[in-house]
Amino acid sequence: MITPFDVLLAVYGLGVAYHLPRSRDRLVLLTNCNPTELCGGCRDERRRVMHEGMEWEAMFGDFAGPFMVLLDALAWYVKPLLPALQRSMGREPRAKCSKGECLAWTSRKAAA
Ligand SMILES: [Zn+2]
Fold first, then answer.
1. 14 CA to centre of ligand 1 in angstroms
2. Is residue 60 part of a domain?
3. Between vectors from CA 13 to CA 9 and to CA 14, what angle results, nearest 5°?
4. Which residue segment(s) compose the domain that 80 sits in?
């Protein structure tokens, strides 16, 4: 007997599985690349990721990296809603990648 909840869980699980390698690649790229090759939006994102990474590292040590990737992938369903959520809380939505020459964008295109 398949309930709607089972379907939802399966969709969610597939989403996490789909996003895990992408989240990992994005975080690895952001933290390891030269920030001058990123656009303004991605540089902000990099700063945020590095800052959060330091906080996670204080709590989880060596597990901080995989843990951040997991958290990022687990939150995949929120991401399309984030800009609207932030606006509704009266906050500026995070800057988006301006694409073009940005390394985060060109390497994603290369991977696709
Ligand atoms: Zn960018």
1. 27
2. yes
3. 120
4. 28-111
Per-10-residue mean pLDDT for the chain, 112 residues long? 95 97 94 94 94 94 93 92 87 85 88 67
The total number of structural domains that make up the chain: 1
Asked if the structure places residue 37 within a domain, the reply is yes
Find the 5 Cα to ligand 1 centroid distance in Å.
Answer: 37
Whether 20 is in a domain gets the answer: no
pTM of the predicted model as reported, rounded to 2 decimal places: 0.81
Residues sharing a CB contact under 8 Å with residue 40, sequence separation 6 or more, in sequence order: 95, 98
CB 102 within 8 A of CB 38: yes
What is the Å distance from ligand 1's center to 1 Cα?
A: 45
Distance CA 14, CA 28 (A): 22
Q: 3-state DSSP call for residue 29?
A: helix
Distance CA 74, CA 17 (A): 9
Residue ranges of E strands in 3-67: none
What the block records as the tokens of 66 is 């995989």
Phi/psi for 106 (5° steps) reads: -65, -35
